[in-house]
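Minutes, project check-in
Item: structure for the 144-residue chain
Input as provided by the requester:
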Amino acid sequence: MDIETVLVPVDGSDEAREAVEYGVAIADRYDAGLHALYVFGEGVVRGVEAGDLEEQQVAAEAESFMDTVRDIAGDVPVAHSQAHGFSMHRLSQHPGSVVLDAAEDIAADFIVIPREPVTGDPAAVIEKAAEYVLAHASQPVLSV
């Protein structure tokens, strides 16, 4: 198996942190890079658009999590990006479709996605993406 890029969608949760650990192990094993995609959920997107949440604060929290990703990665090269997993303007935008679009955009060869418990927590956006990604990804997926 030839793996150059491992995509790990994250949302700042403990489950996402664990998925990063698995993603780093795979990337290290195949001498690949890791791409962490921070996916913002519906509550965050609505809060920013309504002015209830400071966009700079949300970005700072995501960047803080990316610092954690880099710490976990050690010598594994890390790239990262951010995406809204929800849109009030595009009905077809879903956290799972955002992950798969990102996988295509960065030519990911492998996806590690956290399988979070269904909590109903609006900040736990990845829990909504896991099933979709498992069902529709064209690359291998590890759900942890």
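Outcome recorded: The domain at 5-143 is CATH 3.40.50.620 (Rossmann fold).
No further action items on this chain.
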